[in-house]
Amino acid sequence: MISVAQKTSIVIGGVAAVSGLSSAIYLSTWTTIEQQISKEGLKLISNEEDYKFVLFIHKDSSELKVAINKDSLDFQAQGFEVKKWCEKSLKEWAPNDTLLKQVKAWCIVPKIKTLKDKLTGKLHKENAWQSKFTTFASNPDKDNKLLAALNESRSKNPLAKESKDGGTELSKWCDSALEQKIYEVDTKHKTEKNIEDWCFEK
Fold first, then answer.
1. Residue ranges making up the domain that contains 81
2. What whole-number distance in Å separates Cα of residue 43 and Cα of residue 176?
3. Would you call 93 helix, strand, or coil by DSSP?
4. Is the pTM of this model over 0.90?
5. Which residues lie closer than 8 Å to 124 by C-beta, 6 or more apart?
6. Residue at 179 is within a domain
């Protein structure tokens, strides 16, 4: 015959077992942030150069400054700090919504790396480049900005408004300008404004 003490022990043990099982089931439904990122099909940064884009894009982020313990952000020098932060944060539990949001902002391969990624304009049609060149190159300003930009890399045979290959050169210039990394944009000629004015349909 089972004593009262034994019955009590069995009941307590049973409750503990159920409680432990419930906790195990609850914890098993949790995932780490890294697992959550994988579930969502997002790609984590593997090329350390990509942290330069992250730092440049978020150069004014007070949250990122706090995260890597810096007073200011330098895209050229602090990629390693962001990488370390990401590696640590990916091991945390996914229910931390704030941390998950930050990981998605700072640890995922950035979508915008070049001006081609950033600017949404549509390039001129193939048969329109020459006429566009003639129009822009005919600007009466003493120092024509378009000709100055196109001739910058030409040591011989500078382009003039009558140049028959002006359209081809303008097209090449636009392709080159759009391939600029967002943190290396030429502030003299290959600017976003000039690209939008000379390369895109209106």
1. 33-110
2. 27
3. strand
4. no
5. 132, 171, 199, 200, 201
6. yes
7 assigned to some structural domain: no
Number of domains in the chain: 2
The DSSP symbol for 181 reads: B
Hey, what are 68's tokens?
């890597």
Q: Assess whether 72 and 98 both reside in one domain.
A: yes
pLDDT digits (tens, 9 = 90+) for 90-149: 999 988 899 999 999 999 999 999 999 999 999 999 999 999 999 999 987 756 899 999
Compute the distance between CA of residue 190 and CA of residue 165 in angstroms, rounded to an integer: 20
Read off the tokens for 168: 């081809």
Q: Are residues 93 and 131 in the same domain?
A: no
Separation of alpha carbons 21 and 18, rounded Å: 5
d(CA 80, CA 118): 25
Helices (H), the chain: 4-28, 33-39, 50-57, 62-67, 79-89, 97-106, 115-118, 129-137, 145-151, 166-178, 192-198
Residues 95 and 153 reside in one and the same domain:
no
Q: Is residue 46 part of a domain?
A: yes
